[in-house]
Protein: Acyl-coenzyme A thioesterase THEM4
Amino acid sequence: MSEQVERGRGRGDVDGYEKHGGFPVYRAAEDDGGPDFGRLIEAMRVLQDAAVSVSAPADVVRQAAEQAEALAALLEPHRVPEGQQPGGRSMGLPGRGSLLMLPWTVDKFDATGVRSTGVFRRFHMGGNGAAHGGTLPLLFDDLFGMITHAYGRPISRTAYLHVNYRKITPIDTPLVIEGQVDRVDGRKTFITAKLMDAEGTVLADGEALMLVLLPGQP
Ligand SMILES: CCCCCCCCCCCCCC(=O)SCCNC(=O)CCNC(=O)[C@H](O)C(C)(C)COP(=O)(O)OP(=O)(O)OC[C@H]1O[C@@H](n2cnc3c(N)ncnc32)[C@H](O)[C@@H]1OP(=O)(O)O
Structure:
């Protein structure tokens, strides 16, 4: 994990960060969920890749379904309230250990911007080897959230998010996304970002308005 990401873990009450909005205070997981949590999440992603790409005999599908049900039953008694689970709060893991987020790695996280690298996987595919169009706004929105956080802005929500799809975004291909705060105007934070391939070709660019939540706003 980079030093910048490490610094982003425990920001304290910078500029009243923890007092804004009705949003609960989130803390990064100290140990990224323990020694095997990242392994579990990666295995789940491999399973998702397999689940959307196999055409297996009925007996294999039945066995897989039974094993998946058994795994869910093993984990079920250990549910905790939002904000206490390592998923989504493990800054040292791809996608912060969330199965929803793209499993990308943050390699720059500071007030000048955030950069993240990774691939769209088979289970992100829309068609003909390209990432599903709906997965790009997810990647951009999460980046915009991190940029807002790294910039030291109080808890904010996305008011709008615009993505321009400039070229096909291929799956299983190393890509980079980077962006920064362009302008701050009161509660408003204006952010832009670009998704590029290894040669620097822009595949998509995006912009967003993040609005600082008012006291009590969810
Ligand atoms: C553990 C550590 C983790 C660290 C990493 C964390 C990463 C996490 C990443 C996760 C990231 C995930 C992030 C997510 O996904 S957040 C989830 C997606 N977003 C939402 O659900 C937001 C839903 N909407 C709302 O809650 C309200 O509408 C908000 C709060 C946004 C504004 O309602 P509010 O009543 O408060 O404000 P207002 O209406 O008086 O407007 C105020 C001003 O703003 C201007 N305006 C408003 N809307 C627009 C618009 N669309 N275009 C242009 N302008 C707009 C408006 O004209 C006005 O301007 P002015 O007249 O003052 O000049």
